[in-house]
Amino acid sequence: MTYDPPLRQQLQAARSSRTPLATSLASWLEGQRWDIALSLNFAANVSRQLAVQTACTYWQRLDVALFGSNAVQRRKTRLPRACFIEGETGVRNWHYHAAVQLPPADAYRRNPGLPATAPEFADALIGRWLAMQEAGRYSKAEPIYGIAGWLTYISKDAGKGECEFCTATSHIISDSDTM
């Protein structure tokens, strides 16, 4: 008979082997409100540089659709999100994990037909992603149920060179490149 420790013990064990950056990011992420867990998989032939560029394009287009070009360019209005891109080791394709908030009320005033629930908005995010040429087949979006577990998972490799944190403005932060 196997013993599965409670989720809190599993999370504590996972966090004990993390870099200080990953621990700080997980703490910051847990202090925010997140509605949707998003995993976007890139096609097999997509390079790291193209994956980063595609992710930025995806969010830029979504932000403009939600808030309008003027709000995005002049006021830097963006859909709240925390994103991590992975894929250098141990996987075949680059992939992208994110915690996303539902759009704020002003986005719904601008777009009355915008999906209002987390499951509907998650479906819209995946639909938009699958329309992109660089999209892979195994992408998923759903409401976040186990918030602590998801946030620990998506930030697990931050600071190890494998995973890079994309800020709410969709820029990549790392020593090697900044977009």
How would you sum up this structure, described in words?
This protein is α+β, with helices and mostly antiparallel strands and 179 residues long. 42% of the residues lie in helices and 15% in strands. It has 7 helices and 6 strands. It has helices at 7-16, 20-30, 48-67, 69-75, 105-110, 118-130, 147-154; strands spanning 36-41, 81-86, 95-100, 140-143, 164-166, 172-173. The chain has a 6-stranded antiparallel β-sheet with strand order 4-1-3-2-5-6, sandwiched between helices. A hairpin with an 8-residue loop joins strand 2 and strand 3. Helix 2 packs antiparallel against helix 7 and helix 3 (48-67) crosses helix 4 (69-75). It is globular and about 45 Å long.
Number of helices: 7
- State the distance separating the first and last CA atoms: 50 Å
SSE order, as H and E?
A: HHEHHEEHHEHEE
Q: Could you list the spans in which at least 5 consecutive residues all have pLDDT below 50?
A: 1-5, 167-179
Given helix and strand content, the structural type is alpha+beta
Largest sheet descriptor: 6 strands, antiparallel
Give Rg in angstroms: 17 Å
Keywords:
disordered C terminus, disordered N terminus, 6-stranded antiparallel beta sheet, alpha+beta, Alpha-Beta Plaits, 15% strand, 179 residues, 7 helices, 42% helix
